[in-house]
Design goal:
The protein is mainly beta. It contains two helices and six strands. It has one domain. Strands 2-1-5-6 form a four-stranded mixed sheet, with no helix packed on it. The mean pLDDT is 81.
């Protein structure tokens, strides 16, 4: 939430936890084990930029850092990581899911953790 506020200058609240994602991968010959928490967020600010259909600068006005809203059904046209978001953003879970993505062994597991 802090990062979104810093980048877009908008306030938000957490609606619910959607996914706990563990990812095992290698980058620059170094192995990583990343744990990430993905939440459904609700904008509580002025939301004036939500209707923009073009690229825009955030409040920091960094020249090389542009933002653009992308419809969920168009995500497949972009490089999005982690890649489970391509399919999972179209159908948000009713219960928290624990997803384990092992790029080192090319496997993936989806586990339901209970109701929210």
């Amino acid at each position: 939430m802090r990062e979104i506020y810093e980048e877009l200058g908008e306030s938000l609240t957490t609606e619910k936890l959607l996914w706990i994602v563990e990812e095992f991968f290698e980058f620059d010959n170094v192995r990583f084990h990343e744990i990430a928490f993905y939440y459904k967020l609700v904008l509580t600010g002025k939301e004036s930029f939500l209707h923009l259909d073009h690229e825009f600068l955030g409040p920091e006005n960094i020249e090389h850092q542009f933002f653009k809203w992308i419809p969920v059904e168009h995500l497949h046209q972009y490089d999005v990581y982690p890649q489970f978001l391509y399919e999972r953003c179209n159908c948000l879970p009713k219960q928290i899911e624990h997803i384990v993505i092992d790029q080192l062994n090319k496997s993936c597991a989806y586990l339901c953790l209970g109701s929210v």
